[in-house]
Specification:
Elements (H helix, E strand, L loop, with lengths): L7 E5 L6 H11 L3 E3 L3 E2 L14 E2 L2 H9 L3 E7 L2 E6 H8 L4 E5 L2 H10 L4 E6 L3 H11 L4 H15 L7 E4 L3 H17 L2 H10 L2 H14 L1
């Protein structure tokens, strides 16, 4: 059994940025990290399994867990409730496993406040134009829904400086490599490696580059 305490990682991004694909790749390539399974009130899809994809609960049970302070973070998204339980996190980190949370920016804000030692990574799209193209390419949303997601993305990017790191998903392999480099540096505890990556993936610098690009487009 590992003697170290695991790290809680948060990966947050605007819808359409590729967050789910990135998480899947990270889990496949790093055996020391495990996905935290969230609770949700939305209906289970045919291909999903309870306890593997989500813990599916009704609104009454979810509200009870909120009252009992069972969640590290919880938020409403697309008219459904989602939450990460303290129990899901503790089960991993106490055994030396890093835990990965794939959550929305609102949830990341709560994690920052309630678990300061967690590490937060924000994933940026290459540009708003590229994000809109990706959302349109999915073919799952109406034009109105895409507009709402773009507007939400703009608000979420305003939160970027709450995060420890910011990476841009221009190309999947490169972005996965960047995130794994961050994870491995933090896990090593090497101050010089960590400082180097804090500078390379500074949220403030990433935001400035993103907005400068938007202004010049």
């Amino acid at each position: 059994m590992s003697t170290r305490e695991g790290i809680t990682w948060v990966l947050a991004a605007p819808s359409g940025t590729g967050k789910t694909t990135l998480c899947r790749q990270i889990l496949e390539r790093d055996p020391e990290i495990k996905l935290s399974v969230s609770h949700t009130t939305r209906s289970r899809r045919p291909e999903e399994q309870d306890g593997q994809h989500y813990h599916f609960v009704d609104a009454t049970e979810f509200d009870r867990m909120v009252r009992d302070d069972s969640f590290l973070e919880h938020a409403e998204y697309n008219d459904h409730q989602y939450g990460t339980s303290w129990a899901a996190i503790d089960a991993g980190v106490s055994k030396g496993r890093d835990m990965l949370l794939e959550i929305e920016v609102e949830g990341a804000r709560q994690v920052r406040a309630r678990l300061p030692k967690a590490r937060l990574i924000f994933v940026l799209p290459p540009s708003m134009c590229e994000l809109e193209k990706r959302l349109q390419g999915r073919g799952t949303d109406s034009d109105q829904a895409i507009r709402r997601r773009i507007d939400a993305a703009a608000r979420e990017i305003d939160e970027i400086t709450r995060f420890d790191y910011a990476v841009t998903n221009r190309e999947l392999e490169a972005c996965v490599a960047d995130i794994l480099a961050i994870i491995h540096a933090e896990r090593s505890g090497d101050p010089e490696r960590i400082e180097t990556l804090h500078e390379k993936f500074s949220p403030k610098d990433a935001e400035e580059r993103f907005r400068a690009q938007a202004e010049s487009a």
